[in-house]
Amino acid sequence: MKNRILSLVFVCVAALTSSCREDVDASVLEAYVGPINMAINIHLIRSDSAIVRSEIKAPKQLDFANGNQEFPEGIEIQIFEKNGELSTTMVADRGYLYKEDNIFKGEGNVQVHNIIKDQKLQSEELFWEPNKKKIYTEKFVRVQNGGTFSYGSGFEADETFSTYTLKNPRDGQIELSGEGI
């Protein structure tokens, strides 16, 4: 009888420890890092002392758990003067907000236009730091100031694109009037 009970206990222990289980795909257990929220046709207004300082518009905004945001269908940022006059627009094919550093990044066909000075910039990438009130890139840029075109790799300006520094300048072009030289 002792042998039977001992055998029964052994069989039960063996059955419990060697149960059937399937191999689990490790990719199923990975943490989700995609967007946690989505907004359509956003229009954000930033103001200081009841005066509009900037407006951000985008057809689609994706929010992530770490606070970052993505604007996969483009972004438009408008900067206003202290008197409320629209001074500068920035447009990009795609946009990102890195929340921890409060830095916006535009990618694709990035265009900046200072309406007051009629200056234009084109690049494939541009960063905007609202807290430091500056825009910059290390990528190739084309700057149009009236009829003058300047090119370079690297650029830094105040956020209104009123004053700027062109790093590593390359060829420039000046538009001539129709009268010739």
From TrEMBL:
GO MF term set: lipopolysaccharide transmembrane transporter activity
One of the record's GO cellular component terms: plasma membrane
Protein name, as recorded: LPS export ABC transporter periplasmic protein LptC
Lineage: Bacteria, Pseudomonadati, Bacteroidota, Cytophagia, Cytophagales
The encoding gene: lptC
